[in-house]
């Protein structure tokens, strides 16, 4: 979809049906104020040439055609790797047409002759999906969610519908899978897109500081409160607040958050006055909140309130085909960032990367590729440049006691090995509990989070 112009291909051997469909599709552009270019053909040969020469967004294909059926032509479109939304049109019973569309993994179906509202609604749904996919594929690296995985794409396709309402959304997934990115995509696809988006990590702040940040406070409410502060919920009025790692929010704060969700009101610390807010809340967690609720570590009423809509991001290890796709994407990003020629991944290292568990998910992959890109002097990234990961791909074992031909390594590398082993041992001792890890290491929780993100460590792996 170029410059918000919708390119629609219509193929039907029946000239009358073709003309009728074309006129009704034209009305879609007028109705929704969308510029639409329509290409109408009564045969698949000319339609195929059109696909070669134009960037078609939506193809409306008649099922019964003499040269090829709509199903056969749709297979041709997919085989040629055209990125086209396909709508199958037929005069069959709706149940038969929908079954055909589902069986062949098509995007929509349509009953002929088409009822105007039904046709426009289905084109509009595909149009919204295209808008989302445009965000996914052409925005900056920060806004990009790169995937070819069918389950992940199915999850992404829910975003346009969820974005239109103010329903509370819970995003689940392991650390490093891109939960904040999904939250930003929801915000940017919503009517609130021109308002502020504020992310806050519920684990990174102590209980008293978290509450004052979220709900605000009055002057003199506590020691150090020299002036009043609105709080994030009021600052983001009209926009979106993203509560990351909500599973680590203290129980007392959970009760206050529940009141915000139910009443759309906040009361600052030290105040008797409540303020109405129009703020959308999106939450995320890497924990299983249903289990946490059963164990009374998380309020069940808040869990059910947050679970109004849930999006689950699969871990990278369950979508191996994305690894090469992501690697090529990040290498392009680093080529532009560092103004250097693009590099590629050598085949042997790619195979090892696909066999690795990637406990830190996309974040770990991204960080290690950046390190490799900087260190690599050739055009092909080899085993040498990813040695801290790929020489022990399926292991989180200690590395300091392992020698590699007794070669002395650089101080910075030794420091990284020590830090990683240290934080892994802390996670083991504390069974993945961030607060305990902070106390045991005598460092604040922000430091602990920085370490586990830096080394791609997933606290969940140590909680059993």
Would you tell me which CATH topology of the largest domain applies? Rossmann fold
Low-confidence stretches: 135-143, 384-409
Q: Give the total of domains.
A: 4
- State the helix count: 20
Major β-sheet profile: 5 strands, parallel
- The proportion of strand residues reads 5-15%
Number of strands: 14
Overall description:
The structure is a single chain. The chain is α/β, with parallel strands linked by helices and 464 residues long. The protein folds into four domains: 5-135, 3-Layer(aba) Sandwich (Rossmann fold); 151-312, 3-Layer(aba) Sandwich (Rossmann fold); 316-395, Helicase, Ruva Protein, domain 3, CATH 1.10.8; 404-464, Arc Repressor Mutant, subunit A (Orthogonal Bundle), CATH 1.10.10. 47% of the residues lie in helices and 13% in strands. It is built from 20 helices and 14 strands. The chain has a five-stranded parallel sheet, sandwiched between helices. A five-stranded parallel sheet has the order 7-8-11-6-12, covered by helices on one side. Strand 4 (85-90), helix 4 (94-103) and strand 5 (108-111) form a beta-alpha-beta unit. Helix 18 (411-430) crosses helix 19 (434-441). The two termini are 47 Å apart. Mean pLDDT is 84; it is low at 135-143 and 384-409.
């Amino acid at each position: 979809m170029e410059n918000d112009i919708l390119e629609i291909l219509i193929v039907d051997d029946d000239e009358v049906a073709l003309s009728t469909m074309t006129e009704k599709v034209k009305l879609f552009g007028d109705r929704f104020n969308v510029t639409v270019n329509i290409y109408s053909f009564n045969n698949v040969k000319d339609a195929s040439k059109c696909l070669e020469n134009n960037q078609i967004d939506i193809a409306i294909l008649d099922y019964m055609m003499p040269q090829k059926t709509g199903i056969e032509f749709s297979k041709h479109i997919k085989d040629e790797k055209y990125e086209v939304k396909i709508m199958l049109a037929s005069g069959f019973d709706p149940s038969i047409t929908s079954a055909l569309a589902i069986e062949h993994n098509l995007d929509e179906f349509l009953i002929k002759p088409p009822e105007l509202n039904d046709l426009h609604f289905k084109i509009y749904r595909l149009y919204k999906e295209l808008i989302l996919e445009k965000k996914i594929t052409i925005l900056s690296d920060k806004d990009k969610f790169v995937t070819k995985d069918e389950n992940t794409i199915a999850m992404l396709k829910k975003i346009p519908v969820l974005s239109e309402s103010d329903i509370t959304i819970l995003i689940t997934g392991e650390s490093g899978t891109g939960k904040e990115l999904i939250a930003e995509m929801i915000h940017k696809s919503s009517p609130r897109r021109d308002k502020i988006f504020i992310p806050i990590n519920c684990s990174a702040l102590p209980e008293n500081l978290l509450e004052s940040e979220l709900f605000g406070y009055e002057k003199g409410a506590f020691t150090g409160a020299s002036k009043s502060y609105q709080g994030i919920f009021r600052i983001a009025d009209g926009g979106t607040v993203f509560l990351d790692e909500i599973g680590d929010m203290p129980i007392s704060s959970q009760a206050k958050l529940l009141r915000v969700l139910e009443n759309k009101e906040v009361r600052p610390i030290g105040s008797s006055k409540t303020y109405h807010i129009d703020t959308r809340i999106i939450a995320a967690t890497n924990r299983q909140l249903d289990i946490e609720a059963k164990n009374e570590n998380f309020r069940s009423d808040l869990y059910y309130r947050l679970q109004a809509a849930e999006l689950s991001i699969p871990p990278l290890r369950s979508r191996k085909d994305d690894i090469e796709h992501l690697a090529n994407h990040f290498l392009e990003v680093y080529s532009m960032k560092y103004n250097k020629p693009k590099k590629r991944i050598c085949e042997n290292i790619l195979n090892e990367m696909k066999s690795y568990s990637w406990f830190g998910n996309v974040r770990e992959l991204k960080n290690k590729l950046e390190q490799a890109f900087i260190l690599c002097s050739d055009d092909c990234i080899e085993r040498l440049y990813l040695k801290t990961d790929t020489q022990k791909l399926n292991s989180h074992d200690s590395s300091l006691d392992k020698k590699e031909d007794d070669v002395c390594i650089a101080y910075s590398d030794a420091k990284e090995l020590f830090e990683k082993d240290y934080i892994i041992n802390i996670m083991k001792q504390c069974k993945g509990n961030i607060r305990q890890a902070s106390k045991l290491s005598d460092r604040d929780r922000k430091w602990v989070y920085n370490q586990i993100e830096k080394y791609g460590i997933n606290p969940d792996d140590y909680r059993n």
